[in-house]
Specification:
Elements: H1 10-24, H2 36-43, H3 47-59, E1 63-66, E2 70-73, H4 84-91, E3 101-111, H5 114-120, E4 127-137, E5 140-150, H6 151-156, H7 169-178, E6 182-193, H8 196-202, E7 209-219, E8 224-232
Antiparallel strand pairs: 1-2, 3-4, 4-5, 5-8, 6-7, 7-8
Length: about 250
């Protein structure tokens, strides 16, 4: 079945076409993805539009940036995210269990890293708003959760930068303040080394490998609204339970 790409913004349409070429095998892992100049020539778009395409491919897991080489095709790993438990904790308020609590660690503005910029459709170094929380239970730290939104959204949703819980989570706040409703979310589970700025609140050594859950959110127009990375406490695990009914 051919996907209808006509309703997507130009940069996402072009990225989707490249993804289709990767999925079909036309572009193989290790191949270079079309450069910004090539996209400009073949698609007839501006440099600003073409420059957003590699970021989408990297954010979707279909490409990686290799120093001195360029953006290279990769195959996204198909991982099943057991994020149901984590989503419950992130909600805060009454959905936390009796022995669970949340601490707001900070809420600041900062320049976007390449990873965050890719996820939010921005240029690296653009100003973003970052909110970091720590979730704990009777056994200690459950997760350290960091969420980023664009500076433009933060201007419309200033509560994001307040050091207090958000009753409807970040996506609920964004919808209330901007009308941009989350229509798609992707959760990815991976192993990462704990960075120095997370090690303290996670009560772990920097460089220790632990489970992370990476969340991307998009609105009803296919534009990214929110990006989050959650580092689980060392030794913690995620699980999901489903009622499958009778056979």
């Amino acid at each position: 079945m051919v996907r209808d790409l006509s309703g997507l913004p130009p940069y996402q349409r072009i990225a989707a076409q490249i993804i289709e070429r990767i999925e079909s095998g036309e572009l193989q892992p290790g191949d270079r993805v079309p450069s910004v100049s090539q996209i400009m020539d073949t698609e007839g778009v501006s440099r600003a539009t073409a420059a957003r395409v590699p970021g989408v491919l990297r954010a979707e897991g279909y490409a990686t940036a290799t120093p001195g080489v360029g953006t290279i095709v990769t195959r996204p790993r198909k991982l099943t995210a057991g994020a149901d438990r984590l989503a419950k904790l992130q909600a805060g308020g009454a959905t936390l269990g009796n022995d669970e609590r949340v601490e707001i660690l900070d809420a600041v503005r900062e320049p976007a890293s390449q990873e965050v910029a890719d996820a939010l459709g921005l240029e690296a170094g653009a100003e973003v708003a970052r909110r970091r929380r720590r979730y704990l239970d009777s056994a200690g730290v459950v997760t350290v959760s960091t969420t980023w939104i664009s500076a433009a959204i933060a201007e419309q949703a200033p509560e994001f930068l307040d050091a207090s819980p958000l009753p409807k989570m970040t996506f609920g706040l964004i919808e209330d303040r901007t009308g941009r409703r989350v229509s798609r979310r992707r959760d990815t589970v991976a192993l990462r080394k704990v960075p120095e700025d997370v090690a303290g609140p996670l009560e772990s050594e920097a460089g220790t490998t632990t489970v992370v859950v990476i969340n991307h959110y998009w609105d009803q127009n296919g534009e990214p609204t929110e990006y989050a990375v959650d580092f689980l406490g060392v030794g913690r695990e995620l699980s999901s339970e489903y009622d499958l009914g009778e056979a």
